[in-house]
Design brief:
Elements (H helix, E strand, L loop, with lengths): L10 E5 L12 E7 L2 E7 L6 H22 L7 H7 L6 E2 L2 H16 L9 H7 L11 H8 L7 E4 L2 E4 L12 H15 L4 E6 L2 E6 L10 E6 L7 E7 L2 E7 L4 E4 L2 E4 L15 E6 L2 H14 L1 H10 L4 E8 L2 E6 L1 H4 L3 E2 L3
Bound molecules: adenosine monophosphate and magnesium ion.
Magnesium ion binds next to strand 11 and helix 7.
Length: 342
């Protein structure tokens, strides 16, 4: 497994209020690393004893590891790894669960006219943002790799997935963390827990009994400032649902004054231009994760339009104008988001 990148969280949560008649106590929490990022599971139920809380956290973390083993593209033995290593050769039988996740990903490719595309794997590998000294790939290499990108080169037949061209790679990095957060959250729900948060690298699944997504009584989410380390860009309140931020400051390098970051435009093979960060709030973390990447690639105008047209989705797009940052909010988010003083 590759080294874990900086552990600084994009989003920090402050619990604000529990109901008046609930005795306050410290939540049960555990932090670890998985899926190449930091992971934390926190349980706020007040009527649970320590042993049960820790057993629940064990199960929630085991679920994250299970999904990592299924969906990571940097291991040849994961299901995705096996699909990739047989690209252009033969189809590979995988679990119905992975088939569904790939199908969902391909639907997002269709909905975004290819802006979100999990076949960007060969390009992600060429850019190698996690390398010690990442470099800009040769233009000719990028042009060649672009011929391996596109959902039309993927075929799914029952449980069999086939990448039609040799050298193709699926990369679920833009959706798998949100999915893992949802699944892990599902385990805690089945264990009858009522209040908890699973955070996988800033992709959060929040469950708070009886609350709705943009609920003003539960948790305060702080969005990291895209350009100032240790500072926050703004905050909002949320209840049960998913939230995710995609940014050009998460995995990047600067070469000759130009910032190259990990969210690629599948049309050009280069980092998507024009946007600095996107935050999405949705009913689940899978949607929030996929859409934060998708909207980032679509850019300011088309990205905002996408958010406005998506049912149950709210969000914010941030871009640079000279030395300052400008943001645009979807109507439902306008009432909630408070920008910090820059
Ligand atoms: P996120 O941090 O959720 O925005 O996901 C970014 C990650 O998704 C990158 O590190 C790549 O592994 C992958 N990726 C990059 N560009 C795209 C894209 N246009 N569509 C889908 N996945 C992408
Ligand atoms: Mg994403």
């Amino acid at each position: 497994m590759k080294s874990v990148p900086s552990l600084s969280s994009l989003i920090v949560i402050t619990l604000l209020s529990i109901s008046c008649n609930t005795p306050t106590r410290d939540p049960f929490t555990r932090e670890t690393t998985a899926m190449n990022t930091f992971v934390s599971v926190t349980i706020y139920d007040s009527d649970i004893e320590g042993a049960r809380a820790h057993a629940a956290i064990d199960s929630a973390l085991a679920e994250v590891h299970r999904i990592e083993l299924m969906a990571s593209d940097y291991s040849d033995t994961s299901e995705v790894g096996r699909i990739n290593s047989h690209a252009g050769v033969e189809s590979v039988s995988v679990s119905p669960e992975l088939v569904s996740l790939i199908e969902k990903s391909l639907e997002y490719a269709t909905k975004s006219a290819g802006a979100f595309d999990v076949t960007v794997g060969p390009l992600v590998k060429a850019w190698d943002f996690l390398a010690d000294h990442p470099r800009v790939p040769d233009q000719k290499v990028i042009a060649q790799l672009l011929t391996l990108v596109g959902k039309q080169h993927v075929s799914i037949n029952g449980d069999k997935v086939f990448l039609k061209r040799r050298g193709m790679r699926l990369d679920l990095g833009a959706i798998a963390k949100g999915y893992a957060a949802d699944r892990s959250s599902g385990i805690l729900k089945r264990l009858a827990l009522k209040r908890f948060i699973v955070d996988i690298g800033g992709n959060l699944s929040v469950f708070w009994d009886g609350t709705r997504v943009l609920d003003s009584t539960v948790a305060e989410i702080l969005i990291r400032h895209p350009r100032k380390d240790g500072e926050f860009f703004g905050s909002f309140m949320m209840g049960t649902g998913g939230v995710s931020t995609s940014g050009d400051y998460q995995r990047y390098f600067v070469h000759k004054g130009v910032r190259y970051h990990h969210i690629l435009n599948p049309a050009t093979g280069y980092p998507a231009q024009g946007v600095v960060a996107v935050t999405i709030v949705a009913s689940d973390a899978t949607t929030a994760d996929a859409l934060s990447t998708l909207v980032f690639v679509l850019g300011r105008e088309h990205g905002m339009e996408f958010i406005r047209n998506a049912a149950g989705v709210e969000g914010m797009v941030v871009w640079e104008s000279g030395d300052s940052l400008v943001h645009d909010l979807s109507p439902g988010f306008e009432k909630q988001f408070i920008r910090s003083n820059d």
